[in-house]
Amino acid sequence: MHDDHELARLVGKLDLPAKVRLLAGGSVWQSCAEPAVGLRAMTFSDGPAGVRGPGWDERRTSLALPSPSALGATWDEELVGRLGGLLAAEARRKGVDVLLAPVLNLHRTPYGGRHFECFSEDPLLTSRLGVAYVRGVQAGGVAATPKHFVANETETDRLTHDVEVGERALREVYLAPFEAAVEAGAWAVMSAYNAVNGHSMSESPLLTSPLKDEWGFDGLVVSDWGAVRSTTASAVSGQDLSMPGPWGPWGDRLVAAVEAGEVPEAAVDDKVLRLLRLAARVGALDGTGAVAPPAADESLLREAVSASAVLLGNNGILPLAPGLRIAVIGPGATEMRVQGGGSSGLYPAAENSLLDALAERTEVVHAPGVRIDDRPTPVDAPVLVRVLGADDAVLFREHRLTGRILETEEVPGAEVLEISTGLRVTRTGPWRLAVAGYGRLTLDVDGVRVLDVVQPLDTDDPAVKHLRPPHHVVEVPLTEGAEVELVARRELGEDSGMASMLAADPPPSARDEFAAAVRAARECDVAVVVVSTTDAIESEGRDRHTLALPGEQDTLVGAVCAANPNTVVVVNSGGPVLLPWRERAAAVLLAWFPGQEGGNGLADVLFGDSEPGGRLPTTWPDSETDVPVKDFLPVAGTLPYREGLDIGYRAWAASGAEPAYWFGHGLGYTTWDYEEARVERDVVRVRLRNTGERPGREVVQVYLSRPDSAVARPPRWLAGFTTVTAGPGEQVEALVRIPRRAISHWAGEWVAEPGAFTVLAGPNAGDTPLRLERENALLPW
Question: What angle is formed at CA 630 by the lines to CA 624 and CA 634, rounded to 5 degrees?
């Protein structure tokens, strides 16, 4: 490994233009190489629920992990660390050096559209799981990149909105997980698109202090893709690498700024030194070797599903008895959403549905019941892709597996991207055919032009532009048994994004589908209903404007519960949704976009092969009117965090409103009695007993409170947690260490207020049966 003296010597071998060239990407997903110092290009890849690799290509599949919300629900650092090792193995398999994960932003409100990429609403839980993730990935010789630094909790106007947040809340809530990741040795950090307190994050003084100066971060600050929008202001900040490249506001303009004395060359040298340090750590610099990653243990994916599944309620129906006839209801039972939408999306190496997993165990009957998304979907069949030049000359051609073409070969002289396929018509009626993209879009059916539109480029958001552009639909009557040729074209322009050919068959009668589902529920022993959100609701680049499930899913669940009292509802979403039928369902289980082993893992839980191990990482509301933090939409470009320290369960406790389910809530297949707690300096000892008939695992949570504090504090805050396991009737003691930071507040420095804190212990933020008052004070160190 090169030490800093050797790295500085390498920096000194380069002239100014060579150094500046290294500070922008060499391409969309790679940094620049520099043979003069033995530096190869480093490859970056999106995460966090898998390693997609550079670019999007359905022929290059990836292991799909449960979403980070699911990992948050595990409250299991050891499991998250092992999953980090699995990601490192995947990264090395794909030639990836830097994984752009984990996401350490918080679930500030339930309306955040990208919360499925974040662990939780609590800074301590997020910190501990983020540390485990970073250490797991980097133990395999791959850089982890905590993101998006900082206060990036809203997707609306995400490129430009300015978060106004007080110093205490910034330090104690939003910066805390990043500080923990830096202390754990993170090799890179990603700066966000948004601004904080008047400074765009790529120009923010926070990149210098506290990140580099106070915390001693010696890694590389890489920008979110396209987030560097200035030359001098960003270059004099702590921003080190501008991605993607080679275009951007640095390059020749940065060279000129240095020569004009606007940017110190020493600042450039420090950035290059950090780049070389990262390269040495991942094995991209001569004389360094990459750490061999652990073997990929794919069984972890199934284990993680049951470990993250949160059982909200259960009248005793779960686990299911063998031999039951089950009605499996809902479109999500056959096409389970395994991941969230946006840049973290990948092509799973495998997928299994809950219907198939249950059918392997018992007799099942399936009925979708409702349709929750009437949008056409990309053609799921082999297609021919051609890149055409002048006079339709074929410059490139390849066969692809789907009609969603996010990237293809870049060819000089390219003017048109063409996608063609043969569609076998399975049902007579009006088919909805569509083309998505920007620029001029056309669609021909058997040589007849049925669509010819121009879609102007109306956004700067790369997620929308490249992953979710508008689509234009036309209805075409088709006859069952026919095979028609579809040819979609998109004229290529500057930065025109992706293109897709989409199709949707004529839907059956909605009334008949609904009735069939209710009938199936009535005729079976048990009904399992799968409800979910869609990528039009939870996705990068957009926030949610309602917490209600889309379509008629709530109505369907109500009708099925009325038809069969033994109804289990599986909720598949990345964040909270309203559950108006929750008291009528026999059981409610949360799935959290469970990755490629979702069907098998959930079946394990339903039949009791595994215990539902998850606990809520986010408080779930009973109604939208009760949500205490509603401000998620910027006004005139500004988003004030008026609630200060009180987000999530803290805000609920402050408001006095009762949520549907508190942060930390979750049931297993046994019961627990919290018997006693005592404090020994920085450890809370909690004695509890398994009072059920099965072995079980419990997440023991300790909260602090101080109503008489000299400074404003939340009504209660999570100070520590641990897990215990015990057999039926067995007593066990949980040892929960309370870090000094838990009793400290930010006042220009970290200050531990003298005196006593109330200690609360229990299974969730709203249920703490053990309470130690002032006479049992938690003593400062």
Answer: 140
- Please tell me the least confidently modeled range out of 261-275, 466-480, 589-603, 710-724: 466-480
Strands (E), 706-767: 717-726, 731-737, 744-746, 750-752, 758-762
Report the first-to-last Cα separation within the chain, whole angstroms. 38
Tokens of 135: 């250490």
The pairing of strands 326-329 and 526-532 is parallel
Q: Residue 299: what are its φ and ψ, rounded to 5°?
A: -65, -20
Residues of the chain with CATH 2.60.40.10: 670-776
Sequence-ordered list of residues with C-beta below 8 angstroms from that of 314, at least 6 positions apart, any chain = 586, 587, 588, 667
Looking at the DSSP assignment, which residues form a beta bridge with residue 416? 388, 491
Burial environment of residue 390 by CB neighbours within 10 A (0 to 12, 13 to 18, 19 or more): exposed
Whether the CB-CB separation of 437 and 488 falls below 8 Å is answered with no
Tell me what percent of the residues of the chain surpass a pLDDT of 70. 98
Q: What is the dihedral of CA 322, 328, 332, 338, to 10 degrees?
A: 10
Q: Are 190 and 148 in contact (CB under 8 A)?
A: yes
State the pLDDT at residue 1. 59
Mean pLDDT across the stretch 712-730? 98
496: confidence class by pLDDT, cuts 50, 70, 90? low
Q: What count of other Cβ atoms lies within 10 Å of the Cβ of residue 113?
A: 28
Q: Which CATH architecture has domain 670-776?
A: Sandwich (2.60)
Fold of the domain spanning 299-374+509-631: Rossmann fold (3.40.50)
User: Which tens digit of pLDDT belongs to each residue from 194-239?
Assistant: 999 999 999 999 999 999 999 999 999 999 999 999 999 999 999 9
Q: What is the CATH number of domain 377-504?
A: 2.60.120.380
Beta bridge partners of 699: 723
- Is 701 in contact with 762 (CB distance < 8 Å)? yes
- Would residue 444 show up in a list of annotated catalytic residues for this protein? no
Portion of the chain with pLDDT greater than 90, in percent: 88
pLDDT value at 776 more than 50 = no
The CA–CA distances, whole Å, from 380 to 41, 232, 340, 598 equal 35, 47, 19, 21
Q: Spot the catalytic one: 76, 122, 162, 224.
A: 224
Class in CATH terms, 40-244: alpha beta
**Residue 118 to residue 209: CA distance in whole angstroms:** 24
Where does CATH 2.60.120.380 sit in the chain?
377-504
Q: Give the tokens for residue 343.
A: 């840049």
Q: What is the mean pLDDT of residues 161-178?
A: 98
Handedness of CA 304, 306, 309, 310 (dihedral sign): negative
DSSP, res 172: I
Check whether 383 has a pLDDT greater than 70: yes
- If DSSP codes are grouped into helix, strand and coil, which group holds residue 395? strand
CATH 3.20.20.300 in the chain is located at 40-244
Domain with CATH 3.40.50.1700 in the chain: 299-374+509-631
Cα distances from 96 to residues 42, 47, 90, 91, 131, in angstroms, run 7, 11, 8, 5, 21
